[in-house]
Amino acid sequence: xxxxxxxxxxxxxxxxxxxxxxxxxxxxxxxxxxxxxxxxxxxxxxxxxxxxxxxxxxxxxxxxxxxxxxxxxxxxxxxxxxxxxxxxxxxxxxxxxxxxxxxxxxxxxxxxxxxxxxxxxxxxxxxxxxxxxxxxxxxxxxxxxxxxxxxxxxxxxxxxxxx
Length: 163
Prior knowledge:
elongated
């Protein structure tokens, strides 16, 4: 097989087909068959490479998920140990412990609001935000029915599927 890229082979194939329409020549047909074989070979190799990359991405995602689970587990352990330390410091009325390499202190957090029942709060304490959202389904249906909607169009895209 040649060392041409898939792009080059596709262009060569397209040009050979155009030449075939202009001339009936058995050499052109043989050339087209050769180019078509190269095109299919290169396309298959690109698809195999894509599949390998997809498997690599899948493996990376699995590793990321495992690492995320591990991180979450460690964070929970840290929180439990901090609570354990805080509870014991409070139990002994100890606010600060200093050593050569670490200082342990208990501080008060800033005051925060705890809402017990939102239904009991008067309206004047609420913020109202109005969001404008495009109803894509409605616009899509209108365009399908031949009704023009300014600033919108229906498009049909294509994708490659590799099994």
